[in-house]
Specification:
By secondary structure, the chain is mainly α. Helices cover 64% and strands 0% of the residues. It is built from six helices and no strands. It has helices at residues 17-51, 53-77, 91-97, 106-125, 130-147, 158-168. The radius of gyration is 19 Å and the shape is globular.
């Protein structure tokens, strides 16, 4: 299945960092409401993580499950919507987004949605396996740092706030007492 790309003004590639900065500044008002919500949510969940990390972690579990459902739905109904944000990505990432490889976004987004779902389930329910939790949190930290390169299309710097929240939710080391017989 080949996806026919819709034509958007945003599909124009930028050729320099200066041009990217100009495009980002010009389109920022359009993304401002989503940017504010994403960053306020990031600050709120980071603050909660300092006081009630388990609640913040479970909130992220629920958000990741929701994100996986939204991503799967968008892939089924309008796969090219992920390419629209390409103009806001930093130029090296933009070259990848507009490459032939990304002309099939479902090859990238659907595996991400599956991972989001599995990570969400782990964060929401599992209390017994700290190693699995560390894998889930480490994966999310990596994912959120990777989103930085999508610029304001990913509500930068909210993804850094999210990564810090995941780091704050990291399980504490517990020492087990060994009994000497």
């Amino acid at each position: 299945m080949t996806i026919v790309l819709r034509e958007f003004d945003s599909f124009k590639r930028v050729t320099s960092w200066e041009e990217w900065l100009d495009v980002t500044k010009a389109t920022f008002p359009e993304y401002f409401p989503n940017w504010v919500v994403s960053n306020l949510l990031g600050l709120l969940l980071l603050a909660i993580a300092f006081y009630i990390p388990a609640f913040s972690r479970k909130s992220w579990g629920l958000l990741m499950i929701l994100a996986s459902v939204v991503n799967a739905y968008m892939m089924a109904t309008d796969p090219t919507c992920y390419i629209e944000f390409g103009v806001l990505a930093v130029p090296p990432m933009q070259r990848f987004i507009y490459s032939r490889y990304y002309a099939r976004p479902e090859l990238i987004v659907l595996p991400i949605a599956i991972c989001q779902f599995l990570i969400g389930v782990e964060l929401l329910f599992d209390e017994r396996f700290p190693r699995l939790r560390k894998i889930a949190l480490g994966s999310l930290i990596t994912f959120f740092i990777g989103l930085v390169f999508l610029g304001i299309g990913s509500a930068f710097p909210s993804s850094l706030l999210y990564a810090l929240t995941m780091a704050k939710c990291w399980p504490k080391l517990t020492k087990t007492k060994s009994k000497v017989d």
